[in-house]
Amino acid sequence: MIDDTERWQLPEPEVATMVRTRVEALHRAYAAVLDAVGVFAERNIAVGFGYRDTAAWLNVELRLSRREAKTIVAHAESATPAVNLLGGKRHAELDEAAAALGAGEISREHFDVIHRTFAECPGSETEENRASAQDTMVTAARQMRPEQLKRVSARILHYWQDKEPANPPEDRSRSNRVEYRYDKHGWLRFTGQLDPETAATFEGLLGPLARPRPNPDGSPDARTSPERHGDALAEIVALAARVEDLSIQGGERALMMITVTLDQVRDRLRNALLDVPGLRTPEDVRRLACEAAILPAMFAADGEPLHLGRTQRLASRAQRRALAHRDSGCAFPGCTRGPKWTIAHHIRHWSEGGATDLDNMVLLCHTHHKIVHDTEWEVRLGGGVAEFLPPARIDRARKPIRNLAHAAGPPKTYSGNNSPIVTARFTRTCSSAQAFARSGSPEAIAS
To answer: Which residues does the UniProt record annotate as the domain HNH nuclease (predicted)?
Structure first.
């Protein structure tokens, strides 16, 4: 760095050269980030840490916005070559643009324009045509500003579109319809249509929940419109599942019946619990069951029922009100979700002896409920206040963090400062068979 005295003594051409050199270094640094993220994503390290994907890990542990995280991952996937199981490599989709970025010749914005262009490239285009188009855009990027490069992009896209045959409109029936399927990762993909009256109701529910929400630090919501709508739909589904009129068991949520034989429990077979669509691990079952009524039934090999477990494990209305007053909504650091959109989560699993008491529960929204179950974040109550301990890779000291987003002033407490600290750690490697063994009861899949 240059001190205040020297910076005013440098000749103007030298200052200009310094700025140019450092901006080019900034471009090269972003190329290095893409290379590292590409390796991280290629090895699927985020899943090993308990996150859905690399973007989710960047969002939570590096505190990047969702849009920034998704953009970096998308750039990395197109800028870094893939390695197969035999050690062979295939060229990156945007190898020439990545090389120019790494040399400091083009900026991140230039690369983004090129990436967005090729995201719309028809699959029918030959490799030769794609390489020619990329060379044209990289050559232009070395001479143009990003907003000028967008004009080149528009011409290339227009050329591609003119070559594509028009698709005939689909014949849609006049009825409400939803078609869905699960992909190999357990995600639900669906299409469908609603009649005008139902569509108006649906849009009325979706609209308020899909509005952009500023982050706790005041920065704008970086989610795209489809992402906001998807999150809003997930919240509507979660809220509807907790409405008493939809239950069939005296005001409880969903009724989940998971059956295993005694031999399967003794042998600790994980697959016995994975017959529910979209679930891949016992921890997925535990998370889904966190606010469902669990009726564990154990059977001998001949089908004789051996045990039926207790079901009084959900927070009462009075407890929900107390939790709403104490936590003000989702207690995870930075989350602004209100109490209505949260789940009363047991800090110490109910199946492992955890009580349905206020000093063993915390409110979590759908997203952070999954993070607490699937990653190395820990939650505890100290003095009646929810605290979260980040993974050691984020903070080696693992200093506790509290949510300061709901309201100004000191956190609320409900039982003074002498409440015991209750802490629990959740990892994806804990099998349900191990949970059975620890608890000595068949309710071990419950949260």
So the answer is: 318-370
CA distance 111 to 128: 20
SS3 378: strand
* DSSP-assigned states of every residue in 218-231: SPPP---HHHHHHH
Domain of residue 137 covers: 4-163
Q: How far is CA 248 from CA 242, 252, 289, 431, 445, in A?
A: 12, 7, 16, 30, 22
Question: Of 241, 259, 274, which residue sits at a domain end?
Answer: 241
- Whole-angstrom distance, CA of residue 323 vs CA of residue 339: 8
pLDDT digits (tens, 9 = 90+) for 407-435: 644 445 444 344 444 444 333 333 333 33
- State if pTM tops 0.70: no
**216 and 188 fall within a common domain:** yes
Report which residue type is found at 211. Answer: R
Q: How many domains does the chain have?
A: 3
- pLDDT tens string 394-410: 888 999 988 887 764 44
Q: Examine the domain organization and report whether 13 and 135 are in the same domain.
A: yes
| Beta carbons within 8 Å of 398's beta carbon, 6+ residues apart | 378, 389, 390, 391, 392
Q: How many whole angstroms separate alpha carbon 190 and alpha carbon 96?
A: 37
Q: Mark whether 329 and 203 lie in a shared domain.
A: no
How many CB atoms neighbour CB 82 within 10 A? 14
Q: Across-strand partners of 424?
A: 379
